[in-house]
């Protein structure tokens, strides 16, 4: 298993912090933006540990298909509160709400 170093964690959280309200980004998109395009899964692992690093809008990160984090029951209500459109109960409408980055 790959260890998440502090610099990787900070790079991920810096991107997550600028995802606008009402938009989502994907794990792969964040990995690409920090120059680690093959580390989408590691981005997910980092976000799973992000609570130790303060408050960040991690609820705005989904899979490439728009799927929510399984078992994270607060994610959907938080996204709905930001008017993020959904295709079904477990998927945001990624085509309509994906943040295009900087």
UniProtKB/TrEMBL annotation:
<keyword id="KW-0489">Methyltransferase</keyword>
<protein>
    <submittedName>
        <fullName>Methylated-DNA--[protein]-cysteine S-methyltransferase</fullName>
        <ecNumber>2.1.1.63</ecNumber>
    </submittedName>
</protein>
<dbReference type="InterPro" id="IPR036388">
    <property type="entry name" value="WH-like_DNA-bd_sf"/>
</dbReference>
<keyword id="KW-0227">DNA damage</keyword>
<dbReference type="InterPro" id="IPR014048">
    <property type="entry name" value="MethylDNA_cys_MeTrfase_DNA-bd"/>
</dbReference>
<keyword id="KW-0808">Transferase</keyword>
<dbReference type="GO" id="GO:0003908">
    <property type="term" value="F:methylated-DNA-[protein]-cysteine S-methyltransferase activity"/>
</dbReference>
<dbReference type="InterPro" id="IPR052520">
    <property type="entry name" value="ATL_DNA_repair"/>
</dbReference>
<dbReference type="InterPro" id="IPR036217">
    <property type="entry name" value="MethylDNA_cys_MeTrfase_DNAb"/>
</dbReference>
<dbReference type="Pfam" id="PF01035">
    <property type="entry name" value="DNA_binding_1"/>
</dbReference>
<dbReference type="GO" id="GO:0006281">
    <property type="term" value="P:DNA repair"/>
</dbReference>
<feature type="domain" description="Methylated-DNA-[protein]-cysteine S-methyltransferase DNA binding">
    <location>
        <begin position="7"/>
        <end position="70"/>
    </location>
</feature>
<dbReference type="GO" id="GO:0032259">
    <property type="term" value="P:methylation"/>
</dbReference>
């Amino acid at each position: 298993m790959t260890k998440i170093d502090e610099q990787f964690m900070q790079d991920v959280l810096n991107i997550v912090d600028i995802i606008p309200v009402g938009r989502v980004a994907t794990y792969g998109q964040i990995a690409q933006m920090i120059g680690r395009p093959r580390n989408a899964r590691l981005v997910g692992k980092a976000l799973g540990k992000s609570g130790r690093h303060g408050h960040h809008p991690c609820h705005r990160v989904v899979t490439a298909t728009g799927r929510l984090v399984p078992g994270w029951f607060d994610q959907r209500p938080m996204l709905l509160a930001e008017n993020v459109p959904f295709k079904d109960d477990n998927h945001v409408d990624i085509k309509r709400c994906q943040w295009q980055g900087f």
